[in-house]
Amino acid sequence: MQSYDVSALMAQTRKLASDYRQQTGHALPVTEELARFDAINIFGLSKIEDREGVDACDKVGDETKRDAENDYYLIKGRVIFKGGKARQKLGKLSLAAEWTVLLMVIYDPDYFPVQIYSVKRTIIEQELNNLSQGNPSDNKRGSMTIAKYKAIGDRVWDNSGQT
After folding, report:
1. How many CA atoms, within 13 angstroms, populate the side-chain half-sphere of residue 76?
2. Is 88 a residue whose pLDDT tops 60?
3. Given this model, what pLDDT does residue 163 score?
4. Is 121 a domain residue?
5. Backbone angles phi, psi at 133, to 5 degrees
6. What rounded mean pLDDT belongs to the chain?
7. Weakest mean pLDDT among 8-17, 74-83, 96-105
8. What pTM, to 2 d.p., does this model score?
9. Looking at the 3D structure of the chain, how many domains does it have?
10. Long-range pairs for 79-86: beta carbons < 8 A, 24 or more residues apart
11. Is the CB of residue 86 less than 8 Å from the CB of residue 129?
12. Which domain does 47 fall in, by range?
């Protein structure tokens, strides 16, 4: 079995996705995998393979935290292209899964992360509930705009390495 350097593969994936977008005007569906890879590496999280709808948790082996104190992360990514839709949405989140925090990774057109936002699940559920009580047709898919997630969340990382 051949072993690959995953970091090198992700670098190639970024380049390929960017080149493909420039040549065709279409995006390759690689953002979610890049987002998981980047968030896990940036924050030193433990990847979770066997829990549907949960991507990572706080570092395994952290003796100072009990299981109940660990956060479980749903990680989503979105590339912001110049001239794209003004009201970009992140997409529907799986509320059936047992994640506690959403990490939203924002990418530049070259598929490099520029910002990461953290939003607690309780805040998201409250906002979705508020939206559904207003005009339900505005929120058919149970999703919110990127701007809304930014407004209710905390920027926890940016490409300068400062928050």
Report:
1. 21
2. yes
3. 57
4. yes
5. -80, -25
6. 88
7. 74-83
8. 0.88
9. 1
10. 79/27, 79/31, 79/107, 79/108, 79/109, 79/111, 80/106, 80/107, 80/108, 80/109, 80/146, 81/21, 81/27, 81/109, 82/109
11. no
12. 6-158
